[in-house]
């Protein structure tokens, strides 16, 4: 089964997460397929930029707890987005949770439509937003990162723009994206690649410095009794034992 829909038009390759049955959860298969599609786009001279979007009402619910990706593969996907020599633009019209926010943070530009919502829900299932911090913390407003990491609260598109998670939002996400994509089409490919390298250098420093430590932290937390209880409670649609 294909989990990534691919279309091309006027130099833009659109990759759509297409597993709405599990809210586009980041399974091992989806992560592998998305990484392969991005690599192909990076090598295609006819692709000027990539739009990353989704089917259904959820961009991504985060890690698939039934078929989780290998941590190294997920880190490789996030770094691959940042290192891709083509700009990657997120188009969001639904909900984004946990690891899905890592995908969003790795993109160069992100636009949201009405009805979008965001939440770092890791603490509510007994883990932490570890590896996704590498693309996110260099870009998020620090006070907001502290608040939303620690509380798991939901917030909307306007707040996501304010804190640096989204670049823009509007009632019609495609109208919002139109001038952005036109600008990318007008850019020289070589200059675009070099300019992307300039603006992603600080994020890549985070990957170079923190990948080993944060991957180990993620693995340790997922093996704890708290995480087992949190994930079980999530799958059983009940409150975890620690909820007050």
TrEMBL record:
The protein's name: Enoyl-CoA hydratase
Lineage: Bacteria, Bacillati, Actinomycetota, Actinomycetes, Kitasatosporales
InterPro entries with a match to the protein in the record: ClpP/crotonase-like_dom_sf, Enoyl-CoA_hydra/iso, Enoyl-CoA_hydra_C, Enoyl-CoA_Hydratase/Isomerase
GO terms assigned for molecular function: catalytic activity
NCBIfam families per UniProt: PRK07827.1 (NF005879)
Family indicated by similarity: Belongs to the enoyl-CoA hydratase/isomerase family.
């Amino acid at each position: 089964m294909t989990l990534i829909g691919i279309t091309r038009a006027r130099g833009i390759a659109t990759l759509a997460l297409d597993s709405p049955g599990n809210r586009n959860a980041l399974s091992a298969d989806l992560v592998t397929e998305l990484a392969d599609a991005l690599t192909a786009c990076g090598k295609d001279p006819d692709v000027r930029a990539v739009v990353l979007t989704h089917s259904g009402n959820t961009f991504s619910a985060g890690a698939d707890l039934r078929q989780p990706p290998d941590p190294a593969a997920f880190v490789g996907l996030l770094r691959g987005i940042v290192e891709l020599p083509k700009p990657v633009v997120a188009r969001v019209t639904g909900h984004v949770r946990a690891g899905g926010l890592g995908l969003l943070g790795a993109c160069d530009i992100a636009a949201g439509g009405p009805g979008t919502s965001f939440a770092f829900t890791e603490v509510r299932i007994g883990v932490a937003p570890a590896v996704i911090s590498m693309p996110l913390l260099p870009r998020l407003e620090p006070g907001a990162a502290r608040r939303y990491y620690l509380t798991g609260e939901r917030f909307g598109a306007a707040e996501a723009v304010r804190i640096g998670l989204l670049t823009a939002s509007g009632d019609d996400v495609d109208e919002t994206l139109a001038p952005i994509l036109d600008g990318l089409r007008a850019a020289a490919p070589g200059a675009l690649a070099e300019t992307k390298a300039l603006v992603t250098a600080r994020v890549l420093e985070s990957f170079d410095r923190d990948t080993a430590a944060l991957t180990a932290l993620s693995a340790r937390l997922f093996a704890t009794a708290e995480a087992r209880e949190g994930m079980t409670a999530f799958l059983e649609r009940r409150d975890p034992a620690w909820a007050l």
